[in-house]
């Protein structure tokens, strides 16, 4: 059987936006920020909030994002209270991608798919601040089989978004 690689315009993929808001806690690496934009586009994320100092959209971010930063809805904000965040737990899912003493494997993720989901990811070196961990309903982690206990934040976010969007798609 001979296979031919498809181009962007003939994949047959249907564009869809999911009610997922990504909150990036103090993310600083240009390559990671660019990758997050590209993941947000690929998984149909509603909006990205970058919590912390504004990062200049430089050549590295542009190149890594493949220009998705030009059409993904995003904001740089200094404080969590600047984010349109639903405080009522009955009106949203709020999960963290973080290894904690109560985190569950991401493949065991459950969500109310009739509600929006806030996914909080952390800084490349320090993870998610305790202040933000206090806001989440549940933390999830990616089980690691090697000596290292974590992976690159962009790669981990891709895995988490895959699991989350699969729950919305099956509805």
From TrEMBL:
Q: Which organism is it from?
A: Galbibacter marinus
One Pfam family name is: SpoU_methylase
Classification via InterPro entries = Alpha/beta_knot_MTases (IPR029028), rRNA_MeTrfase_TrmH (IPR004441), SpoU_MeTrfase (IPR001537), tRNA_m1G_MTases_N (IPR029026)
Q: Which domain of life is it from?
A: Bacteria
Q: Could you tell me what this protein is called? A: tRNA/rRNA methyltransferase SpoU
Q: Enumerate the spans annotated as tRNA/rRNA methyltransferase SpoU type domain.
A: 20-162
Biological-process GO terms, alphabetical: methylation; RNA processing
GO CC terms? cytosol
Keywords (alphabetical) are: Methyltransferase, Transferase
MF term (GO), any: RNA binding
